[in-house]
Specification:
The chain is α+β, with helices and mostly antiparallel strands. The chain has 2 domains: about 160 residues, 3-Layer(aba) Sandwich (Aminopeptidase); about 130 residues, Gcn5-related N-acetyltransferase (GNAT) (Aminopeptidase, 3-Layer(aba) Sandwich), CATH 3.40.630. Helix 6 crosses helix 7. About 35% of the residues are buried.
């Protein structure tokens, strides 16, 4: 079957068929009430995105007997100083009955283009419950990297921690700075090995003023924090929508010796209460799968919607000596 599928540069005339395939895929894998329904009800942003990718020649389409059966788009960008490509969840889809064959044909075609340009870091975001595509990418050498998860803001949690949770004020910036620095050290340690951007006192002051940062205090000692903002626009990368709560920027952190004491749930209740008062129907968080504690916590209270996967190709593939051997 894969040899019968033809790959072409995507054209404007392919957009309507591509949108139908993508919406069907969204309905199949994103039917939970925790997930924004906007993306299947209004495809204007999807269409705009596809037109941009077609114009930049970063969109390909798979056809079988002149019928569109799938498509793939991508961005090129530097990731940790390395040339990379990224296929967002909005930027690819295939009809379900031919999924494996279509995606293999698309990837075989486009990955060679990437390698010819010495781009060895390949990243995809897929729907978390799309087991077929997840398995296919795993077999191709991809590993899980990041999860985007959502929750409705009408949930009630009854757990009570040992801490007092208070909204941060400017006078708390020194204590918050030390906690953020400690969280950065946590992320660089095993098994995460993730380096985060440095955050200055001034950065934190701006975050405290414009966002909602909550600090957990235990007997006058700050032991954790969570940061929330409210979106102003729809975002097709993480699939959040306008007026959605985002746990972002400095994110959330609890000192290791204070974990498993319901502190995270208490902080979560604060941001959910704020979302309800702001009429935000959903709250979004993303977290690295290598963050074992965060992975377990967020999956307990949020529904994973998107999974980002990453593959790093052997860097010597284009070396003349490697080819001659």
């Amino acid at each position: 079957m894969i040899n019968s599928i033809q790959i072409y540069n995507m054209q404007d005339g392919d957009i309507d068929e591509a949108k139908k395939i993508w919406v069907n895929q969204y309905e199949l894998y994103c039917s939970k009430s925790d997930f924004p329904s906007y993306w299947k009800e209004d495809t204007s942003l999807l269409e705009k995105y596809l037109r941009v990718k077609i114009k930049s020649k970063r969109a390909v389409v798979a056809k079988l007997k002149e019928k569109v059966v799938g498509f793939l788009t991508y961005d090129e960008f530097p990731f940790n100083g390395e040339s990379s490509v990224f296929c967002p969840a909005i930027g690819h889809a295939a009809i379900e009955e031919l999924k494996e064959s279509v995606y293999l044909a698309l990837y075989k075609y486009i990955s060679q283009k990437w390698i010819d340009k010495n781009i060895f870091n390949h990243m995809w975001t897929i729907f978390f419950d799309d087991i077929k595509l997840k398995t296919l990418l795993f077999d191709l050498g991809y590993g899980s990297y990041l999860i985007d998860a959502f929750s409705e803001c009408n949930k009630i949690y009854n757990e009570k921690s040992i801490c007092d949770i208070r909204k941060a004020e400017l006078k708390d910036v020194d204590e918050l700075f030390e906690l953020v620095k400690e969280s950065s050290q946590y992320y660089t340690s095993a098994p995460l090995f993730l380096r985060r951007d440095e955050v200055s006192h001034q950065d934190l002051e701006e975050i405290i003023v414009k966002n909602n940062v909550y600090i957990a205090w235990y007997q006058d000692e700050p032991v954790g924090f969570i940061n929330l903002s409210i979106t102003k626009n729809n975002n097709f990368i993480d699939m959040s929508i306008k007026n959605c709560g985002l746990i972002d920027e400095i994110g959330a952190y609890i000192k290791q010796e204070y974990r498993n004491k319901s502190i995270g749930v208490d902080m979560l209740k604060c941001v959910i209460d704020y979302c309800r008062k702001s009429n935000a129907p959903y709250i979004h968080v993303d977290f690295e799968t290598a963050n074992l504690y965060g992975n377990k916590f967020w999956k307990k209270y949020f529904s994973p919607m998107l999974l980002s996967m990453r593959r790093t190709i052997n860097k010597n593939i284009n070396d003349n000596e490697a080819i001659s051997e």
